[in-house]
Amino acid sequence: MSFELMIALSVGAAMFGTGLYGALSQTNLVMIIMGVELVLAAALVNLVAFWRYLHPDEPAAQMFVLIIMAVMAVEMTVGFGIAIARFRSRGSVEMEEARELKG
Amino acid sequence: MIFLALTLLAPLVAGLAILGLRRAPEALAIAGAGLGLIGALGMLVSVANGAAVQAELPGLPEMPLRLVAKPLTAVLALLVATVAGFVLVYATGYMAKDPEKPRFFGTMLLFVTAMQGLVLAGDWITLLAAWEVIGFASYLLIGFWHSRPGVAGAATRAFLYTRSADLGLYLGAFLLIGVAGTSEISATLATTGTPALISGLLLLVAAMGKSAQVPLQHWLQRAMAGPTPVSALLHSATLVAAGAILLIRTAPMLPAGALLAIGIVGGVTAVVTGLIALAERDLKRLLAASTSSQYGLMLVAVGAGAPVAALLHLIAHAAIKSALFLGAGVFQHDRDSTEMTDVAGVGRARPGIFAGFALAALALTGIPPLAGFFSKDAIIAAALTSPSALWLVPLALAGTVLTGAYMGRALQVLWNGDAGDKPGPIPRMAVGMAALVALAVVLGAAFGPLERLLDVEMAEAGLVAPALGLAAALSGLALGWLVPVARLLRGALPWAQTGFAVAGGMDSLVLRPALVIAARCERLEQRLLAAVRGLGQGALASARSARAVERRLYDAVLSFGHGNLSLADAARLTDTRGIDAAIFGFVERMVALGARARQLQSGFIHRELAITTVGVAAIIVALFAAPFLN
């Protein structure tokens, strides 16, 4: 394991931790989504890092990256769509006030 | 053909119309009888002109029903129609107040139709049928006043007497049909030898029954129970005449033996019933006995081989006897009785009717120039020239003397006595009677043409026959008028008054056996009834036991069903308490589990996220730790 890989993984871990903390600690839906984005971005970093430093001659790994990016875009679209709808109907995106998802 | 149909159908249709409509019986009866008379007259004229009047109707296979009018039968048909017409005219007066008029006139016309059928029958089957209808109709008419005491018995007696003798006709007719192979009467008359003798004697038995010859004479006097017009018709041209007509029609076939038997039966009857008539205490019964006696004389003529003489006497007697009966009916109408003691002197109260009655009586006795003289003359002449003159002449002469005696006695009783009140007018009865008396007076003139029509030569015995006949008649009349009956008959009187009931008479020979048989039949029927009832009760009992068995079967099936039901109940219980309960319990526990799981759902995204995170972390840890645990 090279040193550069270790650095990339560390950055990814930091991003994951930050994103996780943000998703768990924030009450604003937008902020939660941003946390989730960070988690996903951390996963991207890790993937790219593993590809670059362990298997640079395998182009298939890049496919995963591209797919995750598409998923992030979609997820963001859906998440922000929900937020906008929420805001329009309730004037707020605070998740402490939103318990309608309770089963 | 038209006349033939008219003769037969006019009375029949009128009779049925009367019985069906039950109104205007007199008019319909006179119309029917009148049309029938026109038909008979036309028929006689056609036949006299040589035309063949006959009809053939479909009947039994190979044996069509034939109606034939020959000179003989056409003359008889005209006689029947004439007498019936006058009697019906008389009856419209006699029955004027009877509530059952339609029944009377309807039956009378039926009777006339049947008689015409008998006279015109061209085959034995038709003749038998007509014979039966005549017997039945006469039963109905004699028993017309069936609610009066003794009338039903008289009708039954007449029916049984004639019925038992009818067996002779059946046997004789079937014997003739069997021998000749055809039912046509004129063809069967060619029969000869023993079959002819046997069937001739059998036919004699039938004629004895119908014409009331000794020893079957008794029913006729009892038949006086019917209305007087019935008696007039019955005695003159219909029922009683049927027997003599049968013998006259079959006379060409009869062999010497049968003829002798017929002559002797007739002669004995003429004498015996003449004595009965002489001893009789009732005017109508006297006339009835006299009828038997006169038919006896006709049988003497047949027996002497001169059926035409018998026919002449039949014709003369028909007019005379119906006139006499109609006269007696008038007397009965006045005095409500025909007992000699009751009608004594009634002749003075009704001189017109008495004159008619007397004329008819003299005609019957045989006083010239009245009709009876010529016919009786013919009979005596026939007897004189016949081979069995030794037997027949004394009997015929005795019969003639007795005829004079009883008619003389009747006239004497009617004339000598208390005239009583002046009775009211009776126009219709008088018209009917006057016409018949006129016939009785002038018929003698018609005998000559009649003989030519029938194409026969009457036996000639010179002046002997008329002289003997006249002497006998006059002496009889004188005896009857002058000498009291008791002295005339002496010891024989009570015997004659009981109708010469030898050994109980035919009552014990015919009537009692028939009634005993009837009683036996009744008992048999009772027994049959009891048997049938027993059978029914047995069937009922078996039905009951079957019902019990069925009840038990039913119970068994029912309990089987109950068992099945409880089994099903048990199955259902297992179903509900076992399987269903298990399933429901499982479901309930699942629901409770779900409820508990729901408590995890807080609705707080953070919490959810946290749980997810912790869960994923736990999974990762587990995944990493698993290889090391092994």
List the helices and strands and how they pair.
The complex is a heterodimer of chains A (103) and B (630).
Chain A (H helix, E strand, L loop, with lengths): L2 H23 L3 H26 L6 H30 L13
Chain B lengths: L1 H20 L3 H24 L4 E8 L2 E7 L1 H24 L6 H20 L3 H19 L8 H30 L4 H4 L4 H18 L7 H5 L5 H9 L2 H12 L5 H24 L3 H21 L3 H29 L4 H4 L2 H4 L1 H15 L5 H15 L3 H27 L11 H28 L9 H19 L2 H5 L2 H6 L7 H94 L6 H25 L1
Helix pairs in contact in B: 1-2, 1-4, 2-3, 2-4, 3-4, 3-10, 3-14, 3-20, 4-5, 5-6, 6-8, 6-24, 8-11, 8-12, 10-14, 11-13, 11-14, 12-13, 12-19, 13-14, 13-18, 13-19, 14-17, 14-18, 14-20, 17-19, 17-20, 18-19, 18-20, 18-21, 19-21
Keywords:
heterodimer; A: 103 residues; mainly alpha; Helix Hairpins; 77% helix; 0% strand; elongated; B: 630 residues; two-stranded antiparallel sheet; 2 strands; 2% strand
List the chains of the largest interface with their residue counts.
A-B, 15 and 10 residues
Radius of gyration of chain B: 46 Å
Total number of helical segments of chain A?
3
CATH class placement of chain A: Mainly Alpha
Helix content estimate of chain A: over 70%
Oligomeric composition of the shown chains: heterodimer
The CATH architecture classification of chain A is Orthogonal Bundle
Structural class of chain B: mainly alpha
Task: State which percent range the strand residues of chain B make up.
Answer: under 5%
The overall pLDDT average of chain A reads 88
Widest sheet: strand ordering of chain B: 1-2
Largest sheet, strands/sense/barrel of chain B: 2 strands, antiparallel
Our measurement of the CA-to-CA distance between the termini of chain B, rounded to an integer number of angstroms, reads 141 Å
Give your account of this protein's structure.
The complex is a heterodimer of chains A (103) and B (630). In chain A, 77% of the residues lie in helices and 0% in strands. By secondary structure, chain A is an all-alpha fold. Chain A is elongated. In chain B, helix 1 runs antiparallel to helix 2 and helix 1 (2-21) packs antiparallel against helix 4 (101-120). Chain B is elongated, with a radius of gyration of 46 Å. Classes of the chains: A mainly alpha (103), B mainly alpha (630). At the A-B interface, helix 1 of A face helix 25 of B.
